[in-house]
Here is the input.
Amino acid sequence: MGEEKYNLSFIGGGLLLAESTIVAEQYLKLSDWGKVEKIVMENNLLQSRVASTSKRFFSEIRNRLVELDSVEIEMLIDGDDRERRQLLWIAICRKYKFVRDFAIEILNSYYRNFKNEIDVGDYTAFFYEKMESHPELESLADSTIYKVRQILFKILREANLLSKDNMIIPTVVSIRLTNHIGDSELMVFPATH
Here is the structure.
């Protein structure tokens, strides 16, 4: 049996911090994704001009939030900005193996080896190396490969893990979150453990 295929549907948006918090609040109240979707769509809680955009964002947010347990959902709602960003990064890494692999093999590894910057060449080398074990990447158009990089770097910046000039930002994971998740999940952050 081969490796789990990479799902790259995260290219539909960035970190979606504000939107994810809104959806999480509704989920905490209703505990039913169908009801949450109905409330979000009927009241345009994601503030989209087009219903199809709201539906796409809601679907992406739900796919990420289902990766969090109830304690983490509560932390997402009542946490500070730093903790919210960290929780959403964890949710994305849980949902998307490609992102998790990049986080561990590039972001964390570079940080631990005192390399402070991630450039386009680093991403490209990672991507093409992954093609060897993930043939689904071979069929992607160059424009899709570019889009994956663009959105991944956007998410890294919005999660405060990468600066606008691609410098790695060392992370101090909140104590509450550190105590809740395992050491293996801390590996998705540029931090020493």
Notes: The mean pLDDT is 94. Residues 95-193 form one domain. Residues 26 and 32 are 9 Å apart (CA to CA).
